[in-house]
From TrEMBL, chains A, B:
It comes from Malaciobacter pacificus. This is Nicotinate-nucleotide--dimethylbenzimidazole phosphoribosyltransferase. Its EC number is 2.4.2.21. It comes from the Bacteria. HAMAP family: UPF0284. One of its GO terms (molecular function) is nicotinate-nucleotide-dimethylbenzimidazole phosphoribosyltransferase activity. Keywords: Glycosyltransferase, Transferase. The gene is cobT.
Amino acid sequence: MNYETILGSVDFLEYLRGKKATFLLSCSVTKTCEVPNISQAGIPGKLYLTPTLDSEFLCTKEVRSLDDIAQTPKGVPTPALITRAIHELHPYSNIEILDLGLQIKPKLDFFKVHNFDLEPSENIETGANINAMEVFQKGVEFGSYYVTNDDYIILAESVPSGTTTANAVAKVLGYECEGYFSSSFKNNPNDIKSQVISRALNFINPNSDIFTKLGVVSDNMILFNAGFILGSRAKNSKIILAGGTQMAAVLLVVNSILQSMEGEIDSTNIALCTTSWVNKDKNSNIKALLEQLDFKINAYASDFDFSLSSHGALKLYDEGEAKEGVGCGGALCYATLNGLSKQDITTKIETLLG
Amino acid sequence: MNYETILGSVDFLEYLRGKKATFLLSCSVTKTCEVPNISQAGIPGKLYLTPTLDSEFLCTKEVRSLDDIAQTPKGVPTPALITRAIHELHPYSNIEILDLGLQIKPKLDFFKVHNFDLEPSENIETGANINAMEVFQKGVEFGSYYVTNDDYIILAESVPSGTTTANAVAKVLGYECEGYFSSSFKNNPNDIKSQVISRALNFINPNSDIFTKLGVVSDNMILFNAGFILGSRAKNSKIILAGGTQMAAVLLVVNSILQSMEGEIDSTNIALCTTSWVNKDKNSNIKALLEQLDFKINAYASDFDFSLSSHGALKLYDEGEAKEGVGCGGALCYATLNGLSKQDITTKIETLLG
């Protein structure tokens, strides 16, 4: 098991080999997830529960706000399984949850659940109605005071229908993004997503400032994490953005905000880590998104797949159904950095599935 | 997989079982390596590159200052493969490079490369021309302020033709050493080495002080690490000297310097770890070297060999071509202390070789 370098050099990741990580799961709900068939990251009609259940499962291996592990119609199990399996094999030193607007709070004792007084954001079809500046500033503030006792931070996300908001964000900010955004479906439901995005764009006044625009089309995770990245540069903490095209959108937001204020960023200590499913996806292009940044970024993809498994539900990943989420790409890179084998991880995930 | 005790008791090593290690690779070039056929630790005519390439490969799995992994004429692959394989299976928590006079700086980001403003030393055939006191004192100073966050330090070396300088050092200091020093060749090129050593000894004035003598026949690695060991006693850090007869020579220098100043050392927390290839070598005798120390020393040898491999290039190790270097003996003991199996290591090394 290894990783590929999408952009940059191996040095950042190699330096972290054997070092300790804090895992931060940033969770939010955008009511965009209520659009039928927009995402398969959860139970139809209950997608708002997914980040809550992911948090619970990652921390405790239990799904407390529902009877069963979130299963999608086709039975693609949540990528939280992957992230949790790795935690059982070679634990992250610390897991903390960032509640960036959950509809249902996760039922967790002992684990730190940071509360930022944020509500789920609205469906972007009618305008997300987010105070974008405020969410961004909460991210900046948290990023600038947050300290880990570990060597680096893995910053992950769980936001159902988040690739739709991410795509809308990139489009509104003027980036080339046609066909670049990923989906939890094998057959990217482009019609549905495009329709949602174009409806959202109707609410955009081209003369508005960047935060006003982002308040219409984005989600709390994107805004907060863009702030977190900028704020955390004060301490120059090493951060792995664990995710696919949604995390790329976070970086595009950072880029646009810097452009708007003629600012700069020392991005040396930030990298993006994703899965092979995103990296090899023919219906999206994360590299093309990252190449539009004005700053340099290291980006890697784990080469893990389910070729060693005969479990039908897991095989769906290799077929392109579900590709990222709950930081599983970052977790898989972390697994490589800590000597775990593909066989170990496969077996553990199969055990978790039961 | 296990280790043998050459001297002392198992307690030192057993205490370190499961504990965390920082790996320090001390690299230097002595132009003695330009003597034809004196060593097979690298590419003929380019042996000065070996420590640079070893550093790059250990840290990043990439050889950046050359197109291909250093291969010797007979195709004995660098022991850096062993040290790196173990890093991938059970990572050292931290790797740092000590530049003790490299001709070419390793191309590494993030990794700490300590610069001591040292140049490659001259061929001892014409006198090494080292300011031995200065290099030694740099080692003392570094040893006395260096702190690791880990439980112990593995101090390794990469110095092509370093067994020749080590042998010359032991001889000049008056130790019994006829036939005790190892070589990277199966058939120790004693004629060439003896000639180089006897030429070097022509430059020795028996009435000179120890540092003047060492300035003629040693290399920067030996001098610096002797200082490092003495300096590090202030903190009493646990140190594994990962190497064969060259590391034994470092200890002989420590011994002679202590004799000259009527000093003492608490050597409780220092041990030497080497390979079975050195330990079982009939053309050298590391135990006989270590038994001449006035202080007690724990010394161990891994029992790892390539009996599980069918790879021709690796089999050469078992035949006596290449025996140590890049701390592979210490790395193999570390592997045992952390539960790795001979099969895991063999497979990983074979994967690295491709």
